[in-house]
TrEMBL record:
Keywords: ATP-binding, Nucleotide-binding. The keyword Cytoplasm does not apply. This is Probable mediator of RNA polymerase II transcription subunit 37c. InterPro entries: ATPase_NBD, Heat_shock_70_CS, HSP70_peptide-bd_sf, Hsp_70_fam. Transmembrane segments: none annotated. GO terms for molecular function: ATP binding; ATP-dependent protein folding chaperone.
Length: 194
């Protein structure tokens, strides 16, 4: 609810999903959270996920008829996507979030980064997914290196980094040296393998 910037009063129905939703204490806690709202128990909790998967399959196949014609299915990224960066004039490494979690896909975002050391000849771009501000505490997806950077003092070379998450969940990350136009990138499948 917090991520969606919603309040419990914005929720019309509470649908129970999964076997644990049968536990009386879980139901009691849900009713407390939703201020006494009646819980929807008309759908078998074990079958609810299968119903959702069937709706998703129909939407992906383009076979949308009947009640599904008025149904809008939005896919979002479950975890933030970003790259490891070094704090300016510090040794602390952090996660520079480029695509925040719950962003609707497809989505394309860009960020700008620079070098950390004087006369750096290459820059490594390490890609992560997760919610920790410390990159290494997140899921490491992969990395690539851009070589042949013209010699310059730190913070002078500039790089545009593009994150492109397509409708199929394929993530493409590329970096471009803005002074030379040199580009390099990496691609990850939906399951985040290269």
């Amino acid at each position: 609810l917090e991520d969606a910037k919603m309040d419990t009063s914005d929720v019309d129905d509470v649908v129970l999903v999964g076997g644990s939703s049968r536990i009386p204490k879980v139901q009691e806690l849900l009713q407390e959270v939703f201020k006494g709202k009646e819980l929807c128990k008309s759908i078998n909790p074990d079958e609810a996920v299968a119903y959702g998967a069937a709706v998703q399959a129909a939407a992906l196949s383009g076979n949308v008829t009947g009640k599904l014609q008025d149904f809008t299915l939005l896919d979002v990224t479950p975890l933030s996507l970003g790259l490891e960066c070094k704090e300016r004039d510090s040794s602390r490494l952090y996660m520079n979030v480029v695509i925040p979690r719950n962003s609707r896909i497809p989505v394309r975002k860009t960020t700008s980064v620079t070098t950390s050391y004087d006369y750096q000849e290459s820059v490594r771009f390490s890609i992560y997914e997760g919610e920790s501000s410390i990159a290494k505490n997140n899921n490491f997806l992969g990395e690539f290196t851009l070589h042949g950077i013209p010699p310059a003092p730190k913070h002078v070379p500039a790089f545009s980094v593009y994150f492109d998450l397509d409708a199929n969940g394929v993530l493409s990350v590329s970096a471009e040296d803005t002074s030379t136009g040199q580009k390099k990138g990496i691609k990850f499948n939906r399951d985040r393998t290269k």
